[in-house]
Amino acid sequence: MEPTSFVVFLSSVLFVIGALGVLLRRNALMIFMSIELMLNAANLAFVAFAQRWAQLAGQVFVFFVMTVAAAEVAVGLALIVTIFRTKRSTSVDELAQLRG
Amino acid sequence: MTLLIVSPILFPLLGMLINALFGQRMRERVVGWVASFAVIAAFAASVVLFVQLSQSHGEPLRLTLAPWITAGALNVAWGFLVDPLSAVMMLIVTGVGALIHIYSIGYMHGDPRFARYFVYLNLFVAAMLVLVMADNFLVLFVGWELVGLCSYLLIGFWFQDVKNAAAGRKAFVVNRIGDVGFVLGMLLIFATFGTLDFETVFAQVKVRGESLAAVASLITLLLFIGATGKSAQIPLFVWLPDAMAGPTPVSALIHAATMVTAGVYMMSRAHVLFELAPTTQALIALVGAITALVAGSSALRQVDIKKVLAYSTVSQLGFMVAAAGLGAYVAALFHLLTHAFFKALLFLGAGSVIHAMHAAHGDVDPQDMRAMGGLAKRMPFTFLTFVIGGLALAGLPPLAGFFSKDEVLLAAFADNPLVFVLLGITAAFTALYVGRQIVLVFLGEPRSANAAHAHESPAIMTMPLAVLALLTLAGGAINLPGGGWLHHWLEPVLHEAAKPLNVGLALVFTLIALGALALAWVWYRDAQRARLEVESALGRFLLSAWHIDAVYHATVLRAFYTLSTICSQLIDIGLIDAAVNAVGRSARAAADQLRAAQSGFVRNYGLLMFLGVIVLVVYFVVVR
Amino acid sequence: MNVADLETVLPFLLLATGGVALLLVDLAVPQARKSLTGWLAFVVALAAGVSALALVSGKTMKGFAGMVQADAFAYFADVLLCVVAALVILLSLRYHTARGLMRGEFYPLLLLSLSGMSLAVHAADLLVVFLAIELLSIPLYVLSGFARPRLESEEAALKYFLTGAFASGFLVYGVALIYGASGTTALGDLRAALLDNPALTSDALLMAGLALVMVGLLFKIAAVPFHFWAPDVYEGAPTTVTAFMATATKAAAFLALMRVVAGFAALSPSLAQPFEVADALRPMLALIAAITMIVGNVTALAQQNVKRMLAYSSIAHAGYALAGVASGDATAVLFYLAAYAFATLAAFVVLIAVGSTEGNEDHRYEAYAGLGRRAPLLGVIMALAMFSLIGIPPTAGFVGKYFLFRAVVASDLTWLAVIGVLTSALSAAFYLRVLMVLFMREPETAPEAEPAALAADAPRMVAAYVSAAAVLLIGVFPSAVLALLTGGELVALVR
User: Fold this and answer.
1) Nearest-Cα residue of chain C relative to residue B19
2) DSSP alpha helices (H): ranges in C356-395?
3) Which residue of B31, B413, C258, C364 sits 20 to 30 Å from the alpha carbon of B218, by its own alpha carbon?
4) Quick check: C376 pLDDT over 90?
5) What pLDDT digit, counting tens, does each position of B240-252 carry?
6) A71 is a domain residue
7) Among C138, C162, C177, whose Cβ lies nearest the Cβ of A71?
8) ipTM for this model
9) How many separate helices (H) and strands (E) can be counted in chain C?
10) Considering the domain boundaries, does residue C193 fall inside one?
């Protein structure tokens, strides 16, 4: 394996861990952190591939993704805090009023 | 000019809009007159167009409002056409329509949904005008569907009664069956000619001629299926008698004078195609004649005043369709025209009777003729006009019906003996049931408290009766035998030679009609006979219109039912796998299943999404 | 970068700068007069729409080193998005006052989301697709929860946020994989790379990346099985936001999806179409379209709530439009989306009018009993909307479905068109049920003071007339709309 493949492999492991975290955790905060892990896995992949193609572009992409992630954090945390005020809980399993 | 051509359509639409938006807040009279003036204005516009047309010697006026569908080969525009044929239809629709609007102001008085009624009625007139003014098959179809919608809404107008709503639904479903034929016919026309324009299609027919014979047979057969739905011919006529559930003026306008004649109009419009298909034509003539006989005989034993007229309408439509099948389009249209006058007159007269029976408090069905009698003295004006309409229907000279029916019979006499015999018998039946109805309703002594206390209807209802009675008296004059005015007028469209009057034939049928009327007088002077005859086997057979509804129930519906039972049985014993199982059960059950998947738990959603991701990735990477 | 670059995303620039500026201006607007912010946002949306309309017939241009593309499709979508947003703003004025939601930040957020949509339709690079999708989504998460502290609204926002962020995780990872396989994220370069290097067409990394990118976009259009968020979010969000999401988001995401699909057209030989879709992708797109039509329409049958029914209706219509994507006819898809958007917006006019009355907002079918008789105008508009959604002539929906199914049949997917027609017939059951309730059912309790509240609100009436007129006019004169799409040079979604 060439060196970048290891990094890509690591990133895919992180990505799958993130995805499974989303599926398995109940706490909205933990789900959210798992999603962040997925985004960071993508960042890692971008950096690795930038290495493979010897381009700067791949590394610049990381900054865009980080910015987006920061915006998501701002909004996501606010939403979780709001719902915690109303429900006194952050468990997503208690949120099933809308269904059918 | 542009505006003038579409103005007959725009006026009723405007009336509809006003009443739809402000009808709730306006007084009844205002609503009624807004709607009526909208149609009167449309009539006036039609007259102006008619005059222009006659000054230009039948050179058609065309208007393409806007392109509609321009997609590849299919190029359809919102095109309208005023030629001699559509001009005649426009005058009938707006003229009779205006009278019935005015009449309705009195008839619908006090109905809680008064404004709604006029909205529908205006919409109907506009839609019917779209139908007769269309210059291509697709626009015609738009009108065709819209009049069907109005008919459905108005049959079920008093939907609080389940029976009325069911009648509306039946009309809708039966008409859809016919529409399938029409749509297929239209598609085939497009596939054959590459256009839906009347002018282009008919021009191509003339050029390509006999080479089209085979496909023309199929096209005309499909179009005729459409016509059997709308014009209530066998096997699709069963909806029309039930359609009497609607308000009586609606029966007069939609289910006697205008909409039901759409099939006859369409066949005349497309006569170039039909003439290429002699087989279809023979079939059409036969279907028309059999329908005339079946419905005419069924009218002999009806006890509901409107049902008699309903079966009579089916029967007279049979005359028109038979005439169209014989290639006697002028006769068909002439009979369409006179029938519009005298049948509207009869229906409005019946409405006047029902109105009076209803208003006089009593406990009988206001439409049951067995509870009437003696109304001639109490409602002299209605009686007089009803008799004029009835005698026209029976075909007595010099009323309008005599001339038009005679032309149809003459065409049959010349071309097709079988059709002639069937129609001849029907003509005798016609006079018999007309006589029976007049005797039972108006003569003798009242047979219920309602009838005894009935009063003449208000002037707003009797005035339209008077106008229609005059038209019925004089209407025959527009096409006197031997090539009358209507013949010349339609010449540019139909290119048909006039036939001379056959005095012998006319005399024979006049005598038959008189004999049948006399027989009715003898039989029904004592109303006892009317009461007893529906009990007999023949009476029940005719009352239920040859049991055709029951036959449909026993065959078509039963077959569907059996089929669905077999399907469900098969599924129950697990012969079909789970996937088909889901389809086999009702859509509602499936819906409940799917709703269960929508559990509300976001983690479930995540899991299902993730499964979707896996399927997608596997497909893209491996399967592709 | 030069001035010509700016022109390629002019509507986006107007919306984004307008949105940010409005955020500041709003600080100076007193609480009692927040509708002023609304009117300013209305002006910005209209200005952006007019700028797009002015540019619509121009020729195809690329800008910002090939990251964005300006063509007739993009500008057409811009016009549609801006008109829809402007109408939503008109509808929101009264509704937000009645529901106690008259807070200024609504309008800047709406404009920013709209700018994301505008960017999405111009995107010619996968990274821009990702950024645009995020830019349109993040304000929508907030807007869904705008009715806090109402629990449904908060629940909707959190569900939307969690599932949406999950989906964009896949999207961005997909972009990374595609970049890894091909060394580029520009759709035009990708297409060239696939043509030059046939080995790339069977690269597992590239295909996995494409699958993940598709997931992100299919989520936005609410295609099965990525649709689960939609009913809950549509029901819980404030009705104005639902109206905006159901119409605008869908249009924007579809055009982005079609550009991505066109970028991969060289995967395998394809039928030459206005935009190309690789034969390799068509079976999957068609299958998802079929399932989406079936699930959307069938589930809508069992709904007891009009707002939720419209959510399933939006899923079903995503299925129809996706069938158009599988057929490769972008013009038919965009036309269909416009027809769908105005019909749905017309339906939401009625919902918002109902939601603007006193008392709790109630969209159960029973709450609509007899409404058509108490407020005939609303009844007529709802009837138009339902007819159009079923596809009855002469409404926009009929012509839209006609073009769409014609394209589907022409691309040898007759079975898909058959499913489309059958599910359309099925859909009549639940659409007509609304009309039946509206016109033929008596209300259980006398609604107090409702007609007065239903009647008078000038901005809402304008929105009602515009959407109803659009439904009719598009149906009667479709060629005028088609002229916008096909008037200039032939559009290539990716070049």
Assistant:
1) C376
2) 371-374, 376-390
3) B413
4) no
5) 888 888 899 999 9
6) yes
7) C138
8) 0.96
9) 22, 2
10) yes
